[in-house]
Amino acid sequence: MEIQVHEQIEDLQHMTVGQLRENYREVFGEESRSYHKQFLFRRIAWRLQANAEGGLSERARRRALEIANDADLRVTAPKGLDLGAAPGRSVTRKLAAVDPRLPPPGQEVRRKWRGQSIVVKVRTNGFEYNGRIHKSLSAIAHEVTGTKWNGYMFFNLGNGGGKDAQQ
Hints:
Distance between the termini: 71 Å
Structural class: alpha+beta
Number of strands: 4
Helix content: 25-40%
Radius of gyration: 25 Å
């Protein structure tokens, strides 16, 4: 059985990412969110070996459960939950630090692209362009140009405060 597993792992090394993802689905019974070839290779090889050797010993499983029971799994409170607020009161959540390259919410960032004037309104929850909210300037630049761009570079916001782009 050991030779058969070794041959399967050898075959994995010559597979494309698409083939590894298909193999991952067969071995784990679910889709992989990863397209990283080395990650897929290692996970599938581990599972093949675990299946052939019987996985973890009972002692190792018990120890893993002990460790899991002792661990505080949540490191931060859920979004929007303020443990210090009185029940029934609304809490204004403090916004994360805003990128200093951006103008303040409510102002606009402009750019001319191939004769077209691109106007983006900076909002607290993203960027508004053509009546839609986008999470990033890069998404808007991609929509406008059809190619991947760094949004700050596209709107010339790299050097500070977005002062040059507001007009």
